[in-house]
Amino acid sequence: MSTTAASVSPRYEPHQKTAYRILFIIGLCHLLNDSIQSVIPAMFPILEKSMGLSYSQLGMIAFSLNIVSSIMQPVVGMATDKKPFPFALPIGLTSTLFGILGLAFAPDYKWIIISVLFIGLGSAVFHPEGSRVAYMAAGQRRGLAQSIYQVGGNTGQALAPIITALILVPLGQMGAAWFTAVAAIAVGLLIYIAFWYTGRLQEELIAGRAKKQAGGHNNKRISKKIWSALILVLFLIFARSWYISGMTNFYAFYAIEKYSFSISQAQLFLFAFLVSGALGTFFGGPLADRFGKKRIIFLSMILTVPLSAMIPFVPSPIAFIMLVASGFILMSSFSVTVVYAQELVPGKIGTMAGLTVGLAFGMGAIGSIALGYIADTVGLVNMIIITGFLPVLGLLTLLLPPDETVSEWNK
C-alpha cells in the first residue's frame, strides 16, 4: 500500500496518548544497535596491539563506520518521508549482523574496514526510522519520547568499556562474534515494531490525516530564517560531536599514558563518562518539555566548558568526577537538538532525524580522523587539551530563535 510522508508525521491531537510500550521497545533496540557499534571503538586498544595500527588508522576505522551512516541517514530519512517502509528497520539490523560477524573474523586492516561499512549501513537505516517510530509514539510528549529513544542508544555506547573489560580483553577480536546474538534479538524486536508501524500507517490513512497534513507543512517551502536556524543547530552538533568523538575514541589511551592505567582501568573511566551521558540524554528531553529546548541546548554546552577544559590537568579521582559531570551535562541536549530540528521543519521527521543524528555520526567520523592526526602530530595529551575547549562554541546557541518563535513560523 502506498503512503506519504504525511502518514507518519501527523499533527497530534491532544487526546492522543503516548505509546510507552513502543517507546521502550524501540529504545531497547537502539541500545542493542549501538552496543554493537560500540564494539568497534572498544576494540581499538586490542587492534592497536594485535595489528600494530597507528592512531590515524584507528581514526580511519571510526571514519569508515560513521561516514556511511552520516551520508546515508538523511537519504534514508528523505526516502521514507516520501514512502514509509516499516520493514527497513529489521533489514538494517541484518546488515549490522553481517558486519559484526565479519569484524570478528577479519584477518587484516582491509577486512575490518569492509566489515564496519556494513555496520555503518545498518546504522544509517535504523536511526532515522527509529526516531520516526519514537515521534509516532510520542503523543504530546515529544521531548520525553525522543529521550527514551536516544537514551537507549547512549546506554548502548556506554557499554563499550564493559564490553572491552569483560569480553574483548579475555577473548580478543573473536569476542565480537558474541554480538551476532545481540543483533539477532534486535532483528526480532524490530519485526514486531515494523508490524506496529504498518498498523499505525493504516490507522492514520483511515482517519484522513494524510490528506490533512499533505495540505500543510509538507508542501510548505522552507524559509531562509528556518534554514539559518537549522544550519546553526547542525554546527552546534558539530562541536558536541567532535568532543564526544575525542573522548570516546582516545581518552582511554590518554588515561593509560597519564595515569599508568591498565586497559580495563581506563575503560572504567570512559564507562562512567558514557553512562552519565546516557542519563543526561534521558533527563534532557523532559527538561526541554518544561523549560524550553533552546535553553537546555545552551546550558548543556556552556556549563560543560569549565569541566572539559580542566579534565586534562587534574588527578585521576577528580578527573573521574569531572568526566561524570561533563558527560551528564553535555549529553542532556542530545535528544533536544533532534526535536528542535524536527519542529523547525514539520513533516520531515525522518529527514531531520537523519540530518541531526546522522550528522553527529558524520562529524564524529571527521573528528576521529582530525583528532587522530593531531594526536600523531602534536601528542595525545595536547589533543585532549584542545578537545576540551570545543564546547565553548555553544555560545552560538544564543543566535537560535526561541521555541515560541519556531512555533509561530510554522503556524
SSE topology:
Blueprint (H helix, E strand, L loop, with lengths): L19 H23 L1 H8 L3 H28 L5 H18 L3 H28 L5 H17 L1 H12 L7 H28 L2 H6 L9 H36 L3 H29 L1 H10 L2 H6 L5 H16 L2 H11 L4 H30 L1 H8 L15 H7 L2
Helix pairs in contact: 1-5, 1-6, 1-7, 1-8, 3-5, 3-16, 4-5, 4-8, 5-6, 5-16, 6-11, 6-15, 7-11, 10-11, 10-15, 10-16, 10-17, 11-12, 11-14, 12-15, 15-16, 16-17
Membrane topology: Multi-pass membrane protein
GO molecular function: transmembrane transporter activity
Protein name: Fosmidomycin resistance protein
Structural account:
The chain has helices spanning 20-42, 44-51, 55-82, 88-105, 109-136, 142-158, 160-171, 179-206, 209-214, 224-259, 263-291, 293-302, 305-310, 316-331, 334-344, 349-378, 380-387, 403-409. It is mainly α and 411 residues long. Helix 1 (20-42) packs antiparallel against helix 8 (179-206) and helix 5 runs antiparallel to helix 6 (142-158). The longest helix has 36 residues, at 224-259.
